[in-house]
Amino acid sequence: MPKLPPIRLRVCPECDAAGDLMQSRCWLCGHAFDGAVDSAQVVEAELIPEHGAGQFSLSTLLLAVTLACVCAGAATVEPGYAVILVMVSVPAWIGTVITKRKYAAKGKPLGWFGRIVAFIVSAIVSYMALVAVAAILAMAVFLALAIYCSIAIANSGGGFH
Ligand SMILES: [Zn+2]
Question: 30, exposed or middle or buried, with CB in 10 Å at 0-12, 13-18, 19+?
């Protein structure tokens, strides 16, 4: 792979996020840069295609395809599982991307292990949230049924006497 020439980035004095040299505001915290570029704020960065900012890397794409295949496979076997899988994996996926970007912004790229941990943690959190929502829904349905039945019984009881 041919080596790309280094690009120059402007580092935000507020949050240390590196961004485009021509930016007038920090993309991360919104800090407004005044006028000329301070040479102390400029860093040179090597452009590595796989970790281009705002782009999905190949490994990220492969993981997405794998997830899509697993969901599609589950859908053919049992549509109910696929719904649960999508509802758990999509938030987990978003959580992983956010975690990855947070680390990348700090200049500490998240490795494979970190990504997997972030994904599992996000998946557990979203699964627990899903279970909690399901439990609340089940309770709401149960309560609604109980109220409906008690009213129905009261009405029919009153009607027959
Ligand atoms: Zn900033």
Answer: exposed
